[in-house]
Amino acid sequence: MVCLGNICRSPLAEGILKAKVKECGLSWSVDSAGTSNWHEGEHPDRRGVAIGLENGVDISHQRARQFQVNDFDKFDLILAMDSSNYHSICSLTANPAQTDKVKIIMNFLSPGKNIAVPDPYYDNRFPQVFEMLTRACEKIIDYYRQDTN
């Protein structure tokens, strides 16, 4: 899960997907990062922590980190929160296989539309973002569970 600063959208996405993975008894590794290093080492935004806790998802323990090139080796799927972050991640790829791992998260709900998860940092749309990410994470699990069955 990747957004710009790794303190709002991607920590929520990480927390939501981890909760759903656990609920489904899957053994997936889920992490998040930012394309920038502006907040490296910081906890998620307090408003994101609050909306997560209201919905049974605790992200308070997470720490922001910057996306690294070796993440292409660690992860099978890299989910960007918007087109800008998608292009930032793709600019780091070394080959088509790495590029193929990068997807825009909302395309799991609305294929090919490249809908952005809005950054709630300035406009406080944390409830809307939480709902969007929850629906997307449910689709991701459905999609990849079918692939393994």
List keywords for this structure.
149 residues, two-stranded parallel sheet, mainly alpha, Rossmann fold, two-stranded parallel ribbon
Task: Please render the helix and strand layout as text.
Blueprint: E1 2-3, H1 9-23, E2 33-34, H2 46-54, H3 71-74, E3 78-80, H4 83-90, H5 96-101, E4 102-104, H6 120-123, H7 126-148
Parallel strand pairs: 1-2, 3-4
Helix pairs in contact: 1-7
Q: How would you portray this structure in words?
A:
The chain is mainly alpha-helical and 149 residues long. It contains seven helices and four strands, in the order βαβααβααβαα. It has helices spanning 9-23, 46-54, 71-74, 83-90, 96-101, 120-123, 126-148, and strands spanning 2-3, 33-34, 78-80, 102-104. The strands form two sheets. A two-stranded parallel ribbon has the order 1-2. Strands 3-4 form a two-stranded parallel ribbon. The longest helix is centred in the last third of the chain and has 23 residues, at 126-148. The protein is globular. The two termini are 24 Å apart. The mean pLDDT is 96.
Record field, number of beta strands: 4
As an assembly, this protein is: single chain
Number of helices: 7
Number of domains: 1
